[in-house]
Amino acid sequence: MIGLVDCNNFYVSCERVFNHKLNGRPVGIMSNNDGCIIARSEELKALGIEMGTPAHLVRHLVERGEIVLHSSNYELYGDMSHRVQGILERETAGVEPYSIDEMFVRMDGFEPEALLEHAKSLHRMIRRGTGIPVCVGVAATHTLAKLANRIAKKHPGYPGVCILHAESDEARHLLQQIKVSDVWGVGRRLNERLQILGINTAWDLREADAKRLRRKFSVNMERTVLELRGISCLEMNDFNEPRQRIMTSRSFGRPTSQLCDLQGAVRQHAQRGAEKLREQKSLARAVLVFLKTDRFRPDLPQYSPSLAVEMERPSQDTRDILHAAQEALRKIYRPKYGYKKAGVMLIDLTDESRQQLSLMETPQTEEERQRSQKLMATMDALNEKMGKGTVRLGLPEKNAPWHLRCANRSPRYTTNWDELMVAYTDEGAAQKNKANKLC
DNA sequence: TGGGAAGCT
DNA sequence: AGCTTCC
């Protein structure tokens, strides 16, 4: 059996662990640049504020003190996510993180009653160990485990935990109540097309002709049907395969037309991309850079170029990647546009073990490669130990227009020595905590 | 008026 | 390359 542990309103729950004043209040967390609302407490949902609402549309509610909006604090959420993962690693036979707030776990070899107890104890232990409320869904396949989790979240009869046995009457009854659009892999478009075929519920989809749907849609649709029947088509390992491309991009706090600003942003992204590349032990052959103007300003001239530059050989060295990225940027840059976003994509990835096979290398290049590896390992180790961005290429820039806007971010309570929780009241400390709220 | 990734067409 | 899907 497969369990899916999903944290409730994860970002809001993380904030609440450290700020009890947020309990019981309508709280939302905003995306990067404080753009739109990407996480909501139950109280905020009850006010009818939808996922993805632009933050400026509810500014008046914030000013009147009726709702609270926080900038997102990914360091905090990432750390809390690791804590949840740590407990699951200790308590289960295997964990597959799927997203920052969802983890699949192996739950094989339990008798039915012991299985329920095990799921309940995970639910309890995570709450106690981290302060984060979670729901646990258990079933024979990933797709059913997702549905079981949904039932645990929404169905009053299954408070926090739901075990779904594929062939049971109970499962049939529950699947008949779930809209097909709530099935994993069925988005807006597929939902419309399925409705036309008279497939409205998760049960309808389960009972549909898998081969026919494969012809009409794709192999993934057939997989979904089989998974709903309890036939596993996804392996646990499918979720931590190395990425086939790595993208880092970000919108700017303010638009800019200056090449040097874009160079700063691209430099940052190239370095972050190279770190991710080394994390998954890959090499990139080419680096693609893209720029975008503000698509919400049709009154201004639009320009969204992109260019891929190939490197001499596949590399994971920040310097090679940065060099290629800057070359690409120089070639696509045109002055007189107000750029709002820049990004770097690492493409044509291969496994780093392939690098060792090049027998034709001269001793110089072999030595160079080892130096590169040592340098990168040292940089990564320092940044791991001392905090992100401790060692990097290029000068730090204050107030660059491409820097993120995040006006109301909570302290990085668990990952930054200067922002630890203050446990006693003292004016100086309170001041300090306040000052730390600024980015 | 977000960011990141994958797969299909 | 653009669209869809996921979170």
UniProtKB/TrEMBL annotation:
<dbReference type="InterPro" id="IPR043128">
    <property type="entry name" value="Rev_trsase/Diguanyl_cyclase"/>
</dbReference>
<feature type="domain" description="UmuC">
    <location>
        <begin position="2"/>
        <end position="187"/>
    </location>
</feature>
<dbReference type="InterPro" id="IPR043502">
    <property type="entry name" value="DNA/RNA_pol_sf"/>
</dbReference>
<keyword id="KW-0234">DNA repair</keyword>
<keyword id="KW-0741">SOS mutagenesis</keyword>
<keyword id="KW-0742">SOS response</keyword>
<dbReference type="InterPro" id="IPR036775">
    <property type="entry name" value="DNA_pol_Y-fam_lit_finger_sf"/>
</dbReference>
<dbReference type="Pfam" id="PF11799">
    <property type="entry name" value="IMS_C"/>
</dbReference>
<dbReference type="Pfam" id="PF13438">
    <property type="entry name" value="DUF4113"/>
</dbReference>
<dbReference type="Pfam" id="PF00817">
    <property type="entry name" value="IMS"/>
</dbReference>
<dbReference type="GO" id="GO:0006281">
    <property type="term" value="P:DNA repair"/>
</dbReference>
<dbReference type="InterPro" id="IPR017961">
    <property type="entry name" value="DNA_pol_Y-fam_little_finger"/>
</dbReference>
<protein>
    <submittedName>
        <fullName>Protein UmuC</fullName>
    </submittedName>
</protein>
<comment type="similarity">
    <text>Belongs to the DNA polymerase type-Y family.</text>
</comment>
<dbReference type="InterPro" id="IPR050116">
    <property type="entry name" value="DNA_polymerase-Y"/>
</dbReference>
<dbReference type="InterPro" id="IPR025188">
    <property type="entry name" value="DUF4113"/>
</dbReference>
<dbReference type="GO" id="GO:0005829">
    <property type="term" value="C:cytosol"/>
</dbReference>
<dbReference type="GO" id="GO:0009432">
    <property type="term" value="P:SOS response"/>
</dbReference>
<dbReference type="GO" id="GO:0003887">
    <property type="term" value="F:DNA-directed DNA polymerase activity"/>
</dbReference>
<dbReference type="InterPro" id="IPR001126">
    <property type="entry name" value="UmuC"/>
</dbReference>
<dbReference type="GO" id="GO:0003684">
    <property type="term" value="F:damaged DNA binding"/>
</dbReference>
<keyword id="KW-0227">DNA damage</keyword>
<dbReference type="GO" id="GO:0042276">
    <property type="term" value="P:error-prone translesion synthesis"/>
</dbReference>
